[in-house]
Specification:
Strand content: 5-15%
Number of helices: 11
Radius of gyration: 20 Å
Largest sheet: 5 strands, mixed
Number of domains: 2
Distance between the termini: 42 Å
Number of strands: 5
Length: about 280
């Protein structure tokens, strides 16, 4: 599995970070290693980026819109890229260390996404994992290929760089989003839940819920039962209280759930055929 940084994506996320930092809308990461990386970029930004450029960056949209903008090779000529050239050259050493730290995760040794693609019964192209020090969390999207963008931070306790989350589960989760979105295009679902989740999920609650269910199902096969218990508790603490209900339902019927459509049929409250799945 390949991990990489994209210069232009890191540039646009870096500028977005700086815009929010200047407005006091974002906190610095709390380690000297991360602060050095971000502070140097921020100082270049303060001396070289006009208000007009800041406005154009904000107009592109949220994280996934900015990624689509870069992946679709949209115009960046309005940014003084040369001002950041030395920074990008110098930072390659740190980026290479970040990639090595993440690639050394022992659970990656026998990990691939073949089983996940088979589960969705579709192929959205090659999966590329792009890292960034300027975002928190991650997201997935699909253009010509499937892209998993993951935030990275320095773990001072381990003295290593890590993604912001659990690596394997995070990859399953973010890669699932474009697959789920495409799979649900021709489906009307009524998956009832009492989840009390962040407002950022208001327009994608069903997609997010399904991504979390599938993330846990697949990651548990690698991390084991202790991870499963932790993950279910973690979901409940985040407000996704219905995840456990659907995970329990899945494990009761695991032997007959072969793909995503089977899972949807199992958990959809609207589908009358659900009754045939449930066991007394």
């Amino acid at each position: 599995m390949n991990f990489s940084f994209d210069v232009y994506m890191e540039l646009i996320y870096g500028l977005d970070y700086c815009i929010n930092r200047e407005k006091n809308n974002i906190k610095q990461y709390n380690t000297k290693e991360n602060n050095k990386y971000l502070d140097e970029f921020y100082n270049i930004y303060l001396n070289n980026i006009s208000q007009e450029v800041k406005d154009r960056i904000e107009q592109i949209g949220e994280y996934h819109k900015k990624a689509e903008y870069i992946l679709n090779k949209k115009d960046l000529s309005f940014i003084n890229i040369n001002a950041f050239e030395h920074w990008f050259e110098k930072i390659k050493v740190i980026q290479n260390r970040i990639i090595e730290d993440i690639k050394n995760d022992k659970y990656l040794e026998n990990f691939d996404l073949t089983s996940l693609k088979e589960f969705y019964d579709m192929d959205l192209g090659k999966v590329e994992i792009i890292l960034s020090m300027f975002i928190s969390g991650g997201f997935g999207l699909s253009t010509d290929n499937t892209y998993c963008i993951l935030g990275v931070k320095y773990n001072s306790k381990l003295e290593k760089y890590r993604i912001t989350g659990t690596l394997i589960s995070k990859i399953y989760h973010e890669v699932s989003h474009p697959y789920i979105k495409k799979s649900l295009l021709d489906k009307k679902l009524n998956i009832q839940n009492n989840d009390k989740v962040d407002k950022c999920y208001k327009d994608s609650r069903t997609e997010e819920l399904l991504a979390r269910i599938i993330e846990i199902i697949f990651a548990s096969k690698i991390y084991g039962k202790e991870y499963l218990s932790w993950a279910l508790k973690n979901q409940e603490e985040q407000g996704f209280v219905s995840v456990k209900k659907y995970i329990d339902l899945y494990y009761k019927n695991e032997n007959i759930i072969k793909n995503f459509n089977d899972l949807i049929e199992l958990i959809s409250e609207k589908n009358e055929s659900r009754k045939k799945w449930e066991k007394s």
